[in-house]
Amino acid sequence: MKSEVLAVLTVLVCSGSCLQCYDRAELLKAKEGIVQCACENNRNCVNNTCWGNYCIYTLVDEVERRGCLPSLEQCHVPDRPGLYCDCCFTNFCNQNSSVPKEDPVEGKYMREILLVAVSLLVLLMVIAAGCLILWLRTKRQRHQLVKDDTSMLKVPIGVDPTYGDIFDEFCTSGSGTGLPYLVQRTMARQISLVECVGKGRYGEVWRGTWMGESVAVKIFSSRDEQSWFRETEIYNTVQLRHENILGFIASDMTSKNSSTQLWLVTHFHELGSLYDFLQYRTLDPESCLCMCLSIASGLVHLHTEILSTQGKPAIAHRDLKSRNILVKRNGQCCIADLGLAVIHSQSNDYLDVGNNPRVGTKRYMAPEVLDESIRVDVFESYKQTDIWALGLVLWEITRRTIVNGIVEEYRPPFFDVVPSDPSFEEMKKVVCVDQYRPSLHNRLHSHPILSAIAKIMKECWFQSPSARLTALRVRKTISKFDQDHDYDIDKLKLDL
Ligand code: ADE
């Protein structure tokens, strides 16, 4: 009877893999034929028990069976799916046997799931690496494109009556859209640098000659290359021909001793910057009016979007100051340095603030820039900061204007309250906390032109940016005044 049970069990289930569950030496220690086991689903069970040397539990095709075995060797079943087998050697040790929590079948799938997950992860990493390479390559290509594009010389259109016309003549011949790249490079290399006329953090300005004509060459310091990119981009993409905006001739990038040289070639103005000019020259009220009007006109041109085929977006300068304004022989001024400018097109709904790490000149910063309340995403904000700076430039000019035989020394704005090269905090204290404004000499109020300009200045310096005048309003007020008083334009020209 006992042997029959065992035979059935052996045929049905017994396995080799069961041995893996136990220490083989321990199993061999088991005494022979004296173990009573739980018996289930087995026709040889007597009261659900049986006798043997080993107890066995099997799960075959989801059917549980319990029984007895005479020897260890019979604990062998072929390893196949859907089968689980467990041998043990103490009384009723198979009573509570069951499939362990981690089903070997499931474990097998786990391995596959893990494999799929790892493969997916590797695939994702490959895709990410591919995207990164693609992005870097596109970025490099775009950078190259900008370099190529910005080094294209664009044609200056229109005539500057106060400037040698050779460039205009040369540049307006042909298609009128710019010189070919090679011609432009050739031209840049034909310039002879004659004398350095300015030096600063930005780099140097040289007077050079090209075909016997003077040109100004601004050589950018390597740390200010973003200003070169920006200025070149603006001059090349925006129609900026205006008598009160510095005339552009060429932009070039060259390599010298493994370092990059960035050149901006413009019209040369022998009187230099307004800052330099005011150091040694005084003005009469009419000349003052002419200068102020020309600067306001230049700013109106920058600030205004023109909608036509030859149109332009609106531009805010962001670093307006007397050092960035040049004096022309006819007594008018022109605005220079567009390295920090922001571009806005209402019609195309875009605001391009560029990516220049440079900031404006602290001395000329508006209160909202100093207290950092400026709304950097609103183009109007930048125009309002230009107006603040315009007021300061007008103040510098009026100090050097003779009224009733009185004139003041040249001084930079806020000279009386901050040191030279003031810090951001020093300017903030004066402009935002103390709300100090440059003082206006009494003599200005006794002259119709100067008192009108004094009133404009005050209205450029409102703490609230939106309360300030617009460039257009400044120009209109000055030009209306100019017409009202019927000044002789010839008298406005500087006697040089
Ligand atoms: N200083 C800076 N730019 C200049 C220019 N274009 N002409 C003369 N002097 C300058």
What would the keywords be for this entry?
496 residues; alpha+beta; CD59; Phosphorylase Kinase, domain 1; Transferase(Phosphotransferase), domain 1; 3 domains; 5-stranded antiparallel β-sheet; 3-stranded antiparallel β-sheet; 14 helices; 15 strands; 38% helix; elongated; disordered C terminus; binds adenine
Quick structural gist:
A hairpin with a 5-residue loop joins strand 12 and strand 13. It is built from 14 helices and 15 strands.
Helix count, per DSSP?
14
Could you spell the SSE succession in H and E letters?
A: HHEEEEEHHHEEEHEEHHEEEEEHHHHHH
Task: List how many beta strands DSSP finds.
Answer: 15
Strand content bin:
15-25%
What is the domain total for the residues? 3
Any idea what the shape is? Answer: elongated
How large, in whole angstroms, is the Cα Rg?
44 Å
- Based on secondary structure, the structural category is alpha+beta
Average pLDDT confidence is 82
The CATH topology of the largest domain corresponds to Transferase(Phosphotransferase), domain 1
